Amino acid sequence: MKYICFAGEPADANRFGNKGLRLARLARSGFNVPDFFVVTPEAFSTNNIQCEIADAMQHICPDGTLVAVRSSSLEEDGGQSSFAGQLDSFLNVSGKDIAMRVADVWRSAFSERIRSYRQSQGLEGDISAPAVVVQRMVDAEVSGVAFAADPVTGDRDVAVVAATSGTW
Asked: Where's the Pyruvate phosphate dikinase AMP/ATP-binding domain (predicted)?
């Protein structure tokens, strides 16, 4: 089974997660999206994906550029809940540390923080490993995020925009 997917491949939410799916759609629509690949949720149950990750890195960062390792679950950025900041993400990760950081993202999906958040949002069912986006880092002057509803309370009458100098 193939555990790595790239932006140009047919995007399936079950393999890409919501964030990965949206990044792939943006890239295919011609938006300037930093190169990325997705480690699929199925990789969680394998013993060794380091070789596949190393091969994928040669495609998106042959020069050894640092990457962001970000969660991409089906529940994130959804209609019911945002999961903003709930799962771990890692910035400025070097090639040798990517597999470890992917495992850290997976581990965060099973944390008490996630169990509590899911309960507060009324989400039922089993917790599963998310897809993980590995994306080329951008040396940003400003970065940020915007929500059409308050990510903590879910209040749709409140929009939240957060920005910071440099990389988030």
From this structure: 48-166
